[in-house]
Amino acid sequence: MSKRISITLTTKGSIDKAIKRLNNYQNSLTEKIKNFFVRLSAKGIETAVQVSGEWGKYIVFRQDVNVVGDEVECLIIATDGQKVLKEWYPSKKDAQNGTNVRSYFVSPILLAEFGSGWLADVMYNIPGVGQGTMPNSMGHAKDSDGWYWYDDAGTKHHSIGEPPKYPMHNAMVRMMSEIESTASEVFKG
Fold it and tell me: Given this model, what pLDDT does residue 15 score?
């Protein structure tokens, strides 16, 4: 929708009124741009949450919108709400006896985005992920016996790895696919 601002050079105050209308239009445009980013990033976050699987409850997704003058910046941020405890045993015998456990806390956002272990390395061909390179991991990424991890309730789970869910990548893909429709919603009037 086009806007017209008329100026009559012979009418007193016409230029001042036009300047005021231009400033109002600039402010409303900045507000619409902010609204556009807020709506678009909300769609991205919705997708990220949906695809995160079991790790989603440990991840905090948020948007950070900054307006400085007539510039708008919007970020989608994913942080670990809580780390997950993982355990390895140097041998099957140690696992059966519960001895010589090696443990560390791992990032749920990294597990969700890139996966881990055999599933990430072999099935999804993501080199360097889940190769047993974490501290005290003893190289169990490709161990057929797998490893164990604890959920937020303290329940122990067995794993041979997690497939990547790509929450941030999927958020970006969703936002790119919705740019035009979101712009139409926000800038229509």
Answer: 79
Question: Which token pair is 67?
Answer: 């307006």
| φ and ψ of 124, to 5 deg | -105, 0
pLDDT at 135: 52
Question: Does 176 fall in a domain?
Answer: yes
Note whether 72 and 119 are same-domain residues.
Answer: no
pTM of the entire predicted model: 0.72
Question: Which single residue is written with the structure tokens 């390179």?
Answer: 133
Q: What distance in Å separates the CA atoms of residue 38 and residue 70, rounded to the nearest whole number?
A: 16
Counting as low any pLDDT under 50, the low residues of the chain are: none
Range of 143's domain? 84-164
Surface-to-core class of residue 148, CB atoms within 10 Å of its CB (0-12 exposed, 13-18 middle, 19+ buried): middle
User: Torsion angle of alpha carbons 25, 28, 34, 36, nearest 10°?
Assistant: -90
